[in-house]
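Lab notebook, bench 4. The sequencing result for the construct came back, and we need a structural model before the next group meeting so we can plan mutations. Quick request posted to the team channel:

Model the 3D structure of this chain.
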Amino acid sequence: MIERLHVGPRLSEAAIAAGTVYLAGQAPELHPEADLEDQTREVLGHIDRLLRECGSSKAHLLTVQIFLADIADIARMNAAWDAWVTPGHTPPRATVQAKLADPRWRIEIVVTARQMSQPSAP
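Done. Here's the predicted structure in token form:
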């Protein structure tokens, strides 16, 4: 069985199957004009919220893919990431430069995590 959360006409924000949580790419929504650090913190907040709704957390990340509009920003992104990630639970991660869907976006993050409890009501 597959459970989908926040289902839209084009994509779902999350899917849960066999105890694994798959999140759609998370990008800045509230402040797309913000600098990279603020966009990164916003995106990580979206990830925290969705993982909680799915019965998981950042301590249960299985893999992470980070897309940066400019790979030269990796050190600034890493500063926000390092403050967020759970020490001792850093997941396998790939970080690449990519042309993002909205030219104001500096970052998009995709995560897969292990589900630890039943999803909460949104």
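The chain has one domain: 2-112.
Will bring this to the meeting.
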